[in-house]
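Retro notes
What went well: the complex prediction finally ran end to end.
Inputs used:
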Amino acid sequence: MGLVFLIQFINVSKAFDNKTLALRDVSTRIEKGEFVFLVGASGAGKSTFLRLLLKIEEPTKGHILVGNRSISRLSRRETALLRRNVGVVFQDYSLLNEMTVFENVAFALEVMGCTGREIREKVLEVLELVGLLGKRDSFPLQLSGGEQQRVAIARAIVNRPQILLADEPTGNLDPDTAWEIIELMNGINKWGTTVVMATHAAEIVDKLRKRVIVLEQGQLTRDEERGAYCREA
Amino acid sequence: MKLRTIGYYFRQAGQSMTRNLWISLAAVSTVAISVFLVGIFTLLVLNANYIVDNFEANIEIAAFVDVETPRGEVLEIQKQIQALPNVASVVLVPKEDGLLKLYGRYGEDRDLLGALGGENPLPDYFIIKVKEPERIASTADYIGQTPKVYKVDYGQQEVERWFMVSSKVRIVGSGLIILLTGAAVFLIATTVRLTVFARRKELHIMKLVGATDWFVRWPFFLEGLILGTLGALFACLGVYFGYDSFILEFAPEMSFLTLINDPVTIYSVLWKLLAGGAAVGALGSLISMQRFLKV
């Protein structure tokens, strides 16, 4: 049996305003269950990579396959279904401040039309997993940054997606809190979810020794198993 | 669609309306004023049509026959006229009846008629109803050329004036109704856009976690529908009581015009206004949020 590639980028380029090339001819494959760091300077194309995967942006050239299906041909409805299978976490948490922790997580299930009981069960389960069961009735602004990011992760995985994308999830956090978040994501990966994380945090990348994909000015310049943030001599 | 989801849509719509109470009130009054004006113009146009229809139904030609014509020949002429294509009916009013009417009209002063010395100076004449009022002029001309008929009369100028006035009212009224409806859609779109804008982050996140377009749209659709219906409801009450008091106040003074006063017609106008207001609300809110779905 051959390898199952969950995500494939085939000669993908993305231009903004017909001149700025955010990605140039990027090709890569990510297997089911992998943990991949996407590293590179600001503006190297990491966010564009993730946004293309979520179909927030369309590639200018090339194809992106998720589960052997080209996502550029998806209808708007199919796009919605794709996103239910791809959880996403941002640097700024993107929580709704007027909703409680419980409601923020439940939101992702409401969208799918789950029943009230189903929602309650799944939300409490995932809040326990991220260690925030006791704070379910708090509002995001009453929580620390690390706690807010854990709420965001809970929202991203409550539907048990196959893929979890994270765009600088530790960018606003102090090192200790950042580690808690990374450990949480590592745990999620161990239960079978494919994780793609864009990050600047060299010490995290170096310590975890996972696959590293490096983008420089939109080009894929390095792809190593058990890699480090910087090229090793 | 699941029942729970429908409940969710209504809760969301309700929440949005109460959170943005002032914007909602602005939307309701916008719709109320526009629908009220549309209602007034609709009734104006309908009444213009109604008056013309009435007028057309009562329109008739009087054709007068030379006084000396013997009765037998008069009946012969009646048959000829009856045979014309646009003629619906021909009634002969004999000179004797004409005299009796005259007596009736003079009442107390009927002695004056004694001066006629027992002679009847009145002609026989026909009252002719036509099938198509639009062609009354040519029919009247044709009858006027019949031998022994010395005069036809159908209130020519009056008829033409009415056709002109009513067609103007129809055109101007319809134009205003279209303009006002457009303005109402635009205004409610602008108003709802404010509430959508306030929630753009929420909509963005909804799309990211996999909400379908319609899942995002439904609450706004309902919100627009509810605000539109409420506004139209106020407008309908205004139109109903306004028109009612107008009829009570002015109808007796304008007995020469018959205005629409049957409940069936008025209720059907009100129903259409209500449905129109609801549609305008829903449409306006869908238009205003389309931009925020592009994720």
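What we learned: Chain A has two domains: 1-85+162-233, 96-160.
What to try next: split runs per interface for comparison.
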